[in-house]
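DM from R.C. (forwarded with permission)

"hey, sorry to bug you on a friday — could you get me a structure for this? deadline for the figure draft is monday and I only need the backbone to look sensible"
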Amino acid sequence: MDSNEWWELVERARDVVGDRADDRDAPDDPLPGALTDVLAALEPERMTAFAVTAVTVTDSAYRWPLWNAAYLIEGGCGDDGFMDFRDGLALLGRKTFSRAVADPDSLADVPVVVRMSRGERGWIGYESLSVPVTEAYRRVRGETDSLDAAVEAALRERIRPAAPEGESWDAEDEEANRRRLPRLAALFPD
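My reply, with the result:
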């Protein structure tokens, strides 16, 4: 599955839920279920391809500047948290995701980030893009072992980043954050 088709499926789910598509913190977050429904309409092989492409998409965001932006936004961000952040960032849609990868400071324009900066409810992260795929696959096939095996086999053939790309700096260095992520640093001054 190419990235265009992958993003079209994400956008289809986002369209279904409308203005509720951008906040993973809602107790009744509708987007994962909508994505599950979109994926369940695919053939099992396409669901597998979606899962593999999801890894490629989120790997493209495995970058130090974005990690440091996540650190500012979330008040800290470890390995697992950054995986969740990237998965949730992908659920914000192609435009937001692409802008954030190219310029992490652009996240200062995302409404849920602005709400979070004011101490209001909100969240970007999502536990794993594999959850909607697994649920859709189980719905169609009644099992997930074959999905797991197919995804594992496909990923074995891929070269995945061993470390984040881009310039690294101490995410707790306020001066460095003000230089590199000025708009986010202004939203999250502490």
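R.C.: lifesaver. The radius of gyration is 17 Å.
me: no worries. Residues 44-59 form the longest helix (16 residues).
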